[in-house]
Specification:
By secondary structure, the chain is α/β, with parallel strands linked by helices. The chain contains 13 helices and five strands. Strands 3-2-1-4-5 form a five-stranded mixed sheet, with helices on both faces. Strand 2 and strand 3 form a beta hairpin. The protein is elongated, with a radius of gyration of 25 Å.
């Protein structure tokens, strides 16, 4: 049918399959740009034959298995682990995300899969805070274009992890839009002054901070004073537009694996919150070429230091 110039849609209708299935079959099994049925059949046979070995590749290599198991327990995705191994762990043999998935489903990965499921299911419904009318806000529309494009380090998003109805305390969360490096501070008791102290603590660890994008929480009522205190600009999302700060929303989702919604934040020590920050900053992330956020920030600072030293020598 392909030789007779039939379309993918026509072939799909004739064989009672979806158009995407036909396209995938031809694209996956063609040889040198051409689809030949006998060769396609042999390629499929070879994949089935070696599929079991590929699934056992992790089990047979102690170092690879240790690395993969540790990353899976820490909540890393199979795709991010495969990317990390390929791009940065040169001492380990390469492995595909599919192979890691097969390992998880095998008898060797059942306990790990169970632990990952527990982390994933630790969620409850969050009571939605009321939107507050803050005066003289600069909305996200006024944010610099370079910040919108994640073109520089220092443009961050901020939010709060709140306690349940009977709990006390918040967690102030902040993440760099470009590097995804995160910083957390427990706010207890909750007050505008303590939020300011939390931001100052983060600024000491994250001196690159230039801008913050956040929501319309009442704790930002003195946002003009906070801008002066930190020496930055603060921009606000439009009401009920949480996707406008997607980086910190995703970060908060990671935190909820360890602190379920409805929890009492006062029951979690600053040391425990710091350990969560460390875990989240050690994820392998495709958007930063499978580096961890901590590694990306460290690399940026080293490069900045070298550029500064080079400029100093030229001026001398």
């Amino acid at each position: 049918m392909r030789k007779k110039k039939y379309s993918f849609g026509d072939i799909a209708n004739e064989l009672d399959r979806s158009k995407s299935t036909i396209h995938e079959e031809i694209d996956r099994n063609k040889v040198k740009g051409k689809y030949v049925s006998k060769k396609a059949h042999h390629k499929a046979y070879a994949r089935r034959k070696y599929a079991k070995y590929q699934g056992m590749k992790i089990v047979e290599n102690v170092e690879l298995r240790t690395f993969v198991e540790h990353a899976l327990v820490e909540g890393r995705s199979p795709a991010s682990i495969a990317g990390r191994v390929k791009n940065h762990e040169k001492a380990l043999p390469s492995i595909s995300a599919d192979s890691i998935e097969r390992f998880l489903k095998s008898v060797y990965g059942r306990k790990i899969e169970a632990r990952r499921r527990v982390l994933k299911n630790r969620q409850r419904h969050r009571r939605r805070p009321k939107i507050t009318q803050l005066k003289d806000r600069k909305f996200i529309d006024a944010r610099p274009k370079i910040a919108n494009k994640r073109g520089r380090v220092g443009d961050a998003e901020a939010d709060f992890i709140i306690s349940g109805r009977s709990g006390k305390g918040y967690i102030l969360t902040l993440a760099d839009r470009k590097l995804r490096t995160s910083f957390f501070e427990r706010i207890l008791p909750v007050s505008i002054r303590n939020v300011e102290r939390g931001f100052l603590k983060i600024k000491k660890r994250y001196s690159e901070l230039r801008t913050i994008t956040t929501d319309n929480d009442i704790l930002f009522v003195n946002h003009a004073e906070l801008e002066k205190l930190l020496g930055i600009k603060i921009y606000f999302c439009h009401p009920y537009h949480s996707w406008e700060k997607g980086t910190i929303e995703n970060t908060n989702g990671e935190i909820r694996k360890y602190i379920p919604k409805g929890s009492d934040i006062s029951n979690y020590s600053p040391r425990f919150i710091s350990s969560i920050e460390e875990k989240i900053n050690n994820r392998y992330m495709e958007c930063i070429t499978f580096l961890t956020p901590d590694e990306a920030l460290e690399l940026y600072r080293k490069q900045k230091k070298r550029r500064g030293a080079s400029k100093s020598r030229r001026s001398d």
